[in-house]
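Hi R.,

Here's the input for the farnesyl diphosphate complex you asked about:
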Amino acid sequence: MDFLKRLFTKEDIRKNLERIDPEKIPKHIAIIMDGNGRWATKRSLPRTAGHKAGIEALRDVIKTCSNLRVQYLTLYAFSTENWKRPEEEVSALMNLLVYYLRNEIQELNENNVRINTIGDISKLPQAALVEIEAAQKLTRENDGLTVSIALNYGGRLEIVNAIKEICRKVKNQEIEIEEIDERLFSDHLYTRGIPDPDLVIRPSGELRISNFLLWQIAYSEFWFSKIFWPDFNGKYLVDAILDYQERDRRYGGTK
Ligand code: FPP
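And here is the predicted structure with farnesyl diphosphate in place:
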């Protein structure tokens, strides 16, 4: 665990890091990055300032996941319902995505991070699509942390789309109805090839799932915190992992 100790200097974080069991690091962590708006309002700032500040948290969390050898990190950045927000906020979020990818992609690549997206990105502005494609192309061969950014993502829509695609295949006699099982269904989701999340984190005090990875979280462990996303960082991630490592995952069986 020496590589971890070098990461953090503050004594309390180091102590917590020493308690982490490297054998039980969650393979896949999914995060609902919530509370940006309230963080900003509390400081009499526009909501968009909260989203901007959220990027700092994102940076720290990606770095920490990478160093802890987490394999998959999925981030809820923009839901199918978020289009209902004022146009100004939607546009600020899209600009932030462009800014983030443009400015961070080199460093992410140097850190062996692979960028992926989930959701119907075809509805995103052209500038965002260009950056996403470039980021995916550049990081395609990386085999460190896979960061999946959920953009125009909705869990229900994902399930409906999977059903449509499977029905189409049955109709075209590409598959038999009897072949449909949980595995085949999973392979028709945006997350195909990615294991289900072991740990789902939601900051900001809300205790709901908000249409995020509905199928995939069947046996995930949850960790909630009252802290707003812009105040989140590697220290809280370590706390969440420590808590996760205490859980007894039985998957419906007995001990
Ligand atoms: C939810 O907080 C947050 C979002 C809808 C956007 C999250 C985006 C970022 C952290 C930055 C951009 C991301 C990338 C990947 C570049 P909220 O606005 O619902 O907060 P509230 O509940 O306090 O209003």
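One thing worth noting: Residues 33-38, 51, 54-55, 58, 75, 77, 82, 93, 96-97, 100, 149, 204, 229 surround farnesyl diphosphate (CB under 6 Å).

Cheers,
M.
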